[in-house]
Design brief:
Length: 142
């Protein structure tokens, strides 16, 4: 009796196993003259080339905005934009703000109601657990 091996092929599932970064573009606006842009200018000269090379999926735009405070604006795939003002920050702090926008989902921050981590419209089939359910509590009498 001979055994035949089954040929297993994987079925593709849309988006499973891949990570799609939600931030699609970062705009860096700065001023050459103002002192509040000093950290941003240092970031653009020293850190931005390495930052842009390590995240090729994010489009980087750098544009001057004379006589205004420096701003980093993130554009997300769901169509929203978030801006962070980086006036008077050092170049390391500007990098942290750029990483915050890079890792954002683009959704509005919203409060989780009721303190529950998982929300559902339907309660569980077993109901809500309580320490008063089940067997009798053990007695501590000797």
């Amino acid at each position: 009796m001979t055994l035949k091996a089954l040929q297993a092929t994987s079925t593709s599932r849309n988006g499973v196993g891949t990570f799609i970064r939600q931030c699609k573009r970062l705009d860096f606006h700065y001023c050459d003259w103002a002192g509040s842009s000093r950290g941003m200018n240092l970031f653009l000269q020293h850190n931005l080339p390495r930052f842009a090379a390590s995240y090729p999926s994010i489009e980087i735009h750098v544009s001057p905005r004379p006589h205004r405070h420096p701003v980093i604006r993130g554009h997300f795939i769901n169509g929203t934009q978030h801006s962070i003002c980086v006036r008077n920050l050092e170049k390391g702090q500007v990098l942290l703000k750029a990483e915050i926008l890079r890792d954002m989902s683009g959704e509005k921050a919203r409060r989780v109601k009721g303190g529950r981590v998982v929300g559902s419209l339907n309660e569980g089939t077993r109901g809500v657990w309580s320490p008063f359910h089940g067997a009798k509590a053990p007695s501590f009498e000797g």
